[in-house]
Specification:
The strands form 2 sheets. This protein has a 6-stranded antiparallel beta barrel with strand order 5-6-11-8-7-12. Strands 2-1-3-4 form a 4-stranded parallel sheet, sandwiched between helices. The chain folds into 2 domains: 121 residues, Rossmann fold; 128 residues, Elongation Factor Tu (Ef-tu), domain 3 (Beta Barrel). The chain is elongated and about 75 Å long. It has 261 residues and is of the alpha+beta class. The chain has 8 helices and 12 strands. Strand 7 and strand 8 form a beta hairpin. The two termini are 48 Å apart. The chain is 35% helix and 30% strand. Helix 2 runs parallel beside helix 5 and helix 3 packs parallel to helix 4.
């Protein structure tokens, strides 16, 4: 009982997390350490013994709060037929293994698949922050599409980046559809310090602008970020957003574009 009370102390007090069942206290402790130290995943409940319907019901609570946590890690225990049937009906995942390493491997793969799926779903919303300066003697086309040489002053410019001119009333020029290096090699991105030419294609539903009329090489071009795109970037590229350069750049663009906290 002492050992069980000690393990229950590792259950997340918020009630959010995965459900864990095992055949012994020792294996339970090993699983809890794996989830906490390696996966950084909270645990909502634990139990020694077979998986019953009541365990599935407890795990299913996460479907309303954090769907990826609606699962049971079952190590060296039997899953009752009615529990398995209920899990399939409700959408609760049950991971089973008799070797703890295999169970850890299965759950780690599951987390990676979820992360990849989330990243894919957010792809259309992600906008990388950047500030570009126009190279005055590298203007190739002044409108529809605009093709100009630029230097990436800060951040990352990628295919699909929407471009705005903050100094000219935040006019939206369009979306970057092409990036070429000096030797005309097509690339998908350019980073701080690089000089490339970019093709900006205007939105057919919006006003079209012309280089030399509405904006010039004196104006900076920046990526049109939004509250949603910032959140999507943080979800998809958390480590990048933690870097000092990108963090500061996002704050700078938020101020330039009038984006609230």
């Amino acid at each position: 009982m002492k050992a069980m009370i000690s393990l229950e102390g590792k259950v997340d007090k918020s009630g959010f997390g995965v459900y864990v069942q095992s055949s012994t206290l020792g294996s339970m402790e090993a699983l809890l350490d794996f989830l906490k130290e390696v996966c950084k995943i909270p645990v909502s409940g634990i139990r020694i013994g077979p998986v019953h319907k009541r365990d599935v019901m407890r795990a299913s609570v996460m479907l309303e709060h954090k769907k990826e946590y609606a699962c049971i890690l079952a190590f060296d225990v039997k899953v009752m037929p009615d529990a398995r049937e209920m899990a399939e009906k409700l959408g609760v995942r049950i991971f089973e293994a008799d070797i703890i390493y295999h169970l850890e491997e299965m759950f780690q793969k599951y987390l990676e698949e979820l992360a990849s799926e989330k990243k894919s779903n957010l792809a259309d919303q992600v906008v990388f922050p950047c500030i570009l300066s126009i190279i005055a003697d590298h203007i190739y086309k002044t409108r529809n599409p605009i093709i100009v040489g630029v230097k990436v002053e800060e951040g990352i410019i990628k295919i699909g980046t929407p471009i705005v001119v903050p100094s000219q009333g935040k006019i939206e020029l369009g979306v970057v559809q092409g990036i070429r290096t000096g030797d005309q090699t097509q690339v998908t991105e350019a980073q701080t310090g690089e000089e490339v030419s970019i093709e900006i294609v205007p939105d057919v539903t919006k006003q079209k602008y012309m280089y030399g009329r509405q904006f010039t090489a004196d104006d900076k071009l920046v990526s049109l970020i939004s509250r949603n795109s910032i959140d999507a970037l943080k979800e998809s590229y958390p480590e990048l957003c933690k870097t000092r350069e990108i963090f500061k750049l996002i704050q700078q663009l938020k101020q330039l574009l009038g984006i609230g906290q």
